[in-house]
Specification:
Blueprint lengths: L1 E7 L3 H12 L4 E4 L6 H6 L1 H22 L11 H25 L3 E3 L3 E3 L4 E4 L4 E9 L3 E3 L12 E2 L1 H6 L6 E5 L3 H13 L2 E5 L13 H14 L2 E3 L4 E7 L2 E6 L4 E4 L1 E4 L3 E3 L32 E3 L10 H15 L13 E3 L5 E5 L2 H6 L4 E7 L4 H5 L6 E7 L5 E7 L3 H13 L4 H5 L10 H10 L9 H6 L1
Parallel strand pairs: 1-2, 1-6, 2-3, 6-17, 8-15, 9-10, 9-15, 10-11
Antiparallel strand pairs: 4-5, 5-6, 7-16, 12-13, 13-14, 18-19, 19-22, 20-21, 21-22
Helix pairs in contact: 1-8, 3-4, 3-6
Length: 466
């Protein structure tokens, strides 16, 4: 059977593209060898955030004691938590399947591989043909020398999210987003957690200012997560009471399990790219043009397979934009404007560029900040840690970037993302009445602070005048 569009990969990019193709009337096949939803829904974003929410209750019990409300010591039923998490995942993946069906998308539960222009060989031996092919196969975790996911002691993020045990001592190799989120979850569950990062700083590939990272490091230390930066893990040895992580210089770290979270790489191998002349760069990312088309005519690529942040919402945005382009719409993607949320304690979220990046780009900027400790809602929640930061052009006051570290930052960043995307000014946010008492007031006051007009903190300009 021939299709207008065939998509290899049923993750957020692939299934969103398929649904939109169905909506505009294109005969569409979605090829996925595992579960619909890909890594994000099944072994990444959703289970991580489910466990983050569950374990946040444990941290909340400690905060409640400060308010005069005490509970007995929580009991952790690991099996029940895992079952609850899996139930959330199943509800979402089942929902994706229903929406695909209602939009006329044929889901093919097989492995697909390019076999020439417009041809895809399936693992069953069948071949399907399509006028356009979209590659959306996603990414896989990276291994490093001395550590293999084949070793029982070494966990991938998928292993950690399976929630089979709570190790007394956990080493997390990698101080990026995935490593720090899982470090937070397992620390809340009771593990002694040590994060080992080769680079001089954690979250080094995320565009964050030093103040934000420093605030997170203080908070990690406060909850008992040890962070070792500039440290190389060279391997491990099994000992009587666990494993010793071998560190550069001869020192050892005694743990029970090792979580390897040093990043992900595109799953561009074994897709049959060579049969049609699809080119990749030296890191395995597929080369595309501004229409998301590869070096082979009629074959497109999105999501983790192509350069840009490895985020589910980046993949789905590309998938929808690509499908719309099949219906004649122009593609207008801005990776700098894509917001990011990091589920540590406290949460971090950002949209647009950092102060450091803006200055590197030669911009003269205004910077405004407002602390959570000055927000009545934050104090009432017993969540005083963190701040809002706004970066705007000095000449036109257009908002270039926002960083938020603090409670509910992941929910608060969307207003900032709208401001960045549409070039809103500091005055646009300031003139919008924000309800009181709420957390979003912090964004408004940060904008006011950038102009020296914040009400609830002493402005830098006011201090200078004094």
């Amino acid at each position: 059977m021939g299709y207008d569009v065939a998509i290899i990969g049923g993750g957020p990019g692939g299934y969103a593209c398929a649904i939109r193709c169905g909506q505009i009337g294109l005969a569409t096949a979605l090829i996925e060898e595992e579960r619909l939803g890909g890594v994000c829904l099944n072994w990444g974003c959703i289970p991580t955030k489910s466990l983050y929410a569950a374990t946040k209750l444990l941290a909340g019990a400690e905060r409640a004691a400060q308010m005069g409300i005490s509970f007995s010591k929580p009991e952790i039923d690991l099996k029940q938590i895992a079952e609850w998490k899996d139930g959330v995942v199943s509800q979402l993946t089942d929902g994706v399947g229903t929406v695909l069906e209602k939009n006329g998308v044929e889901v093919v539960h097989e492995r697909g591989k390019l076999a020439g222009s417009g041809r895809i060989d399936l693992s069953s031996g069948r071949t399907i043909e399509a006028d356009r092919v979209v590659l959306a196969a996603g990414s896989r975790p990276i291994e490093i020398p001395g550590f293999s996911f084949g070793d029982e002691a070494v966990w991938s993020s998928t292993d950690a999210l399976a929630l089979r045990e709570i190790p007394d001592r956990l080493a997390v190799i990698g101080g990026g987003v995935i490593g720090l989120e899982l470090a937070t979850i397992y620390r809340r569950l009771g593990s002694a957690v040590s994060v080992i990062e080769l680079l001089p700083e954690i979250l080094s590939i995320v565009d964050l200012d030093r103040r934000t990272v420093a605030t997170l490091k203080r908070s990690l230390k406060a909850i008992g997560v040890e962070v070792r930066t500039g440290t190389k893990a060279e391997g491990f040895e099994t000992v009587d009471d666990g494993v010793d992580v071998l560190l550069e210089g001869g020192s050892r770290l005694a743990v029970d399990r090792i979580l390897l979270a040093v990043g992900r790489r595109p799953k561009s191998e074994d897709l049959g790219l060579e049969t049609v002349g699809v080119e990749t760069d030296d890191r395995g990312f597929i080369r595309i043009d501004d229409r998301l088309e590869t070096t082979a005519e009629g074959i497109f690529a999105i999501g983790d397979l192509v350069p840009g942040p490895m985020l589910a919402h980046k993949a789905s945005t590309e998938g929808i934009a690509l499908a719309d382009s099949f219906d004649g719409a122009a593609i207008d993607l801005d990776h700098d404007g894509i917001p990011q949320a990091i589920f540590t304690d406290p949460e971090i979220a950002s949209a647009g560029v950092s102060e450091h990046r803006a200055k590197e780009d030669g911009r003269s900027v205004l910077v405004g900040r407002f602390p959570y400790a000055a927000l009545g809602k934050a104090l009432g929640m017993s969540e005083p840690d963190g701040f809002f930061q706004v970066v705007a052009g000095e000449d036109d006051h257009r908002i270039l970037g926002v960083q938020i570290i603090g409670a509910e930052a992941s929910d608060l960043i969307s207003e900032a993302a709208v401001a960045v995307r549409h070039g809103l000014s500091l005055e646009d946010v300031i003139e919008t009445v924000h309800p009181h008492p709420t957390l979003p007031e912090g964004l408004k006051e940060a904008c006011e602070n950038a102009l020296g007009r914040a009400i609830h903190v002493v402005n830098r300009s006011a201090r200078k005048e004094a």
